[in-house]
Fold:
Amino acid sequence: MRNLMMAAAVAVATLSAATPAIAQNTAAPGLVTVTVQDVSILNNFLNGAQVAALNNLNVPITVQAPISVAANVCGTTVAVLSAARKTGDAVCTATSGSRALADLTNRQLLSQKK
Structure:
């Protein structure tokens, strides 16, 4: 009986520890996970040190972006991404850069490295 109780306690602890990691990979409502395969699309929007720092991260990188920003840089529409949000998390791959994507990348990835 004691072994069964210990196993149950370990299972609960394991599930509790795993839950935050799962939640971190899910975009908040109204946000889309944008994957950047090639950080050079941000060259015109970030300075050399920022681009170098991004190149030191594991590529691809991902950022959480408002649906309108994601639609713009991924070459799709808000309607397509909105429909994807209804069936699960909307994810897209950036095919172009923008000031908004660069600012989000800077805040979410580079400011953590300071």
Summary: The first strand starts at residue 31 and ends at 36.
